[in-house]
Fold these 2 entries.
Entry 1:
Amino acid sequence: MASANNNNASYQCPVCGYDQMRESPDSGNICPCCGIEFDADDLNKTLVQLRGEWIENGFRWFSKGTLSPKDWNPYRQLILAKHGGDLLLNPRFPNDANYRNAVDESFSNIRMAKQLRVLRERHHPPLTQAQVAEKTEMKQSRISELENVDYSSWSVSTLRRFARAFGVRLVFGCAPWERLPLEMAQGLNIESLWVPPFDRNAPFSAPVGNALDQQSPFWKALRSSGQMSNEPFRSGEIGALRERPKPFADGGVFVGMLSRSQPTTETRAKL
Ligand SMILES: [Zn+2]
């Protein structure tokens, strides 16, 4: 018997990824989104097969009684539920350009929103939405809206504000479809969403006159492209005068902290 505590519980459908099911995906229950009846429809087919069929048949919202969420997007739902590969493998992908574009656009929107959040939260020190709002001269409610994976109305000028606020580059361009599977596989990891700000970028933080840095792949490539002369660096040129960045407090700082703690040891030795 369901207790009162379970009234607000929600479950995720293992077929379509809808995560607001009122009842668990168990015997006799039906997902209002994909219409799968558990312990019935799934007796002779795997979840992957059922998912593939739902996608191929146009993944329409099933229930007449439970309405779909506002701005419901089955592409986004499947990607967030980590079923993006099923979207790519579906026969609709090669056969339907609208479908293909919707898969790509939904993925890009999710990625952009998640990246804004990662850049804010992994900033040193981490920033609140209010602080980002101040830096970008936008309202906090707007920051919240843009960090939501449902957002899709990106503008280049807005994204530039974020890029400047976080000290990163905004890159835009076209890409081949063959990259999409790998992007979908890796593109939503925090590691791939995080971008270090300017002063954490190796080519611009090298010490003056370091021969090794003159031979670094960054500058070698620029020289061989003709974008830069072959003359040796002059003193004070490039980011050469910049100090190497100090390690972050939550990683690699150990060495720095150790050297700073040495006086303490000496002090103790004197006592
Ligand atoms: Zn479902």
Entry 2:
Amino acid sequence: MPHGDDFLKRHSSVVKKNGKKTCEKCHLESGCTSCHARHIHPGLKRERLEELRRGAGLD
Ligand code: HEC
Ligand code: HEC
């Protein structure tokens, strides 16, 4: 695994700091988007989920 255990929790700030270009060396953008959009994330506030759906172009 190239990422540490707590990476998922930190990844959004890593992307904000370094940009997603660095991720695209390994990840397809569609992989990011499908996780953001398809899953229901327990513990995410409704507004946050809507923000993510908007960001992914679903709403
Ligand atoms: C060197 C290649 C590489 C780079 C660069 C990379 N990743 Fe990954 N990433 C991986 C691999 C390999 C996995 C594991 C895939 C799997 O388990 O299916 C992974 C898994 C993940 C996961 C799932 C983690 C989990 O706990 O389920 C997320 C989220 C993620 N990466 C986000 C990012 C983000 C955001 C960036 C850019 C800041 C990034 N990655 C950069 C290779 C990379
Ligand atoms: C395993 C599921 C999963 C994967 C894969 C994933 N994310 Fe996320 N992402 C989340 C969750 C959950 C949140 C909301 C919680 C948070 O901000 O940490 C989020 C939030 C974000 C945010 C903040 C969005 C905002 O509007 O503030 C960014 C940026 C982001 N992800 C980028 C990426 C990128 C780039 C990738 C692909 C390299 C990726 N994510 C892959 C689950 C994932």
